[in-house]
Amino acid sequence: MASLHVKKGDRVMVIAGKDKGVVGEIIAVHVEDQRVVVEGVNIMKRHRRESQGAGGRRIEGGIISAEAPIHVSNVQLVTKVDGKEVVTRVGYEREEVMKKRADGTEYKAFRSKRVARKTGKEI
């Protein structure tokens, strides 16, 4: 399964939908569905009946608000440039690194890193 251009903890801006323009942090990532849950975005209300929970614990009823997932194509990464937040695309660069095996020998390998297209800096 391929990875996504954003991950948990990234600051993103919604670029499409009813919450267009809202900036928030990614709370959860669902790679298999290509969806992300962003803090304060796509708030859905659910009506819950009061009930008896496991162990005799009472579950309170009422209207509960929570974030619902949105498609990853509707968000774009936000980075800081000169103190201002700007949206940017995500690129990838591979750098050569030295790794050690269990027996102590070293070998060359490549590490992939995410790069902000606007600034060229590692994210």
From TrEMBL:
PROSITE patterns (UniProt xref): RIBOSOMAL_L24
Keyword match Ribonucleoprotein: yes
Pfam families: KOW, ribosomal_L24
Transmembrane segment boundaries: none
Any GO MF annotation of the entry: rRNA binding
GO annotation terms (biological process): translation
Keyword Zinc: no
Alphabetized UniProt keyword annotations: Ribonucleoprotein, Ribosomal protein, RNA-binding, rRNA-binding
GO cellular component: ribonucleoprotein complex; ribosome
SUPFAM superfamilies, per database record: Translation proteins SH3-like domain
InterPro entries: KOW, Rib_uL2_dom2, Ribosomal_uL24, Ribosomal_uL24_C, Ribosomal_uL24_CS, Ribosomal_uL24_KOW, Translation_prot_SH3-like_sf
Start and end residues of each KOW domain: 5-32
Gene3D superfamilies: 2.30.30.30
Subunit structure: Part of the 50S ribosomal subunit.
Function field: One of two assembly initiator proteins, it binds directly to the 5'-end of the 23S rRNA, where it nucleates assembly of the 50S subunit.
HAMAP family according to UniProt: Ribosomal_uL24_B
Similarity comment text for this entry: Belongs to the universal ribosomal protein uL24 family.
Name of the protein: Large ribosomal subunit protein uL24
